[in-house]
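Researcher: We're teaching a course module on how sequence relates to structure. For the next exercise, students receive a sequence and then see the predicted structure as tokens, so they can try to spot secondary structure elements on their own. Here is the exercise chain.
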Amino acid sequence: MPVTLFSIIMGLTGAAIACRKAFPDLLLLQSAGFLFGVLSSLLLVTFLVMYGWKILRHNDEFLHELKHPVRINFFPTISISLLLQSAYWASWHDVALALWSVGASLQLLFTLYIMSNWIHRDHFTITHTNPAWFIPIVGNIVVPLGGMPLGFHEISLFFFSIGLIFWFSLLTIVLYRLFFHESLPEKLMPTMFILLAPPSIGFISYSEIASSSDLFAHVIYYFALFVFILLMYNGNSDNKCDTHG
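Model: And here is the predicted structure for the students to work with:
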């Protein structure tokens, strides 16, 4: 039961929210969104029980993940899943409030713990850096999605500020690693798409906080669009290189 499985819930819940908001009058998409939402909620409960059992019965494996230079960054997928669930179930105020409160609290704890590890541990090197390091940062940007509809403006702004500033800082470090050191291991190549998350979610969260899509919101949006185009171009280039090789 690796902690990385919680990323499945993030994807399903994100798809559920997208289906609900993209075409509210299209019954097929609304039905798909409902199925994704219910399935993600059931999986969240199941995974939480399973991972809780792992902590109790296989504590050494849990501690190994907690100290692993890559897997440690996937623990915030738990808090992000709770925050996305809160946004999905926004019409159920008490449920959304409970999910958001637990998710935001966990996100702050995970951010403090992981960043303290980055600062104080001496076993990290530049080659350990990869796009998965954005996950603890992105979780802070997700907080306003559920927090603003619940009326938590200042708390949402607090988390958004953390995510935004450290996204800029971490982006520089990750790009330095990608530009001037060896390529990512093949098993970590899918994490490149995590580069899309901060500007994409940042655009939505900022628009929620500012109550409009102003110039800065458009800058973030179009940066996300460029990252998407770059990833598609890079994927096609890799395929051509493999073919000619």
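Model: If you want an answer key for the exercise: DSSP finds nine helices and no strands in the chain. The chain has a mean pLDDT of 87.
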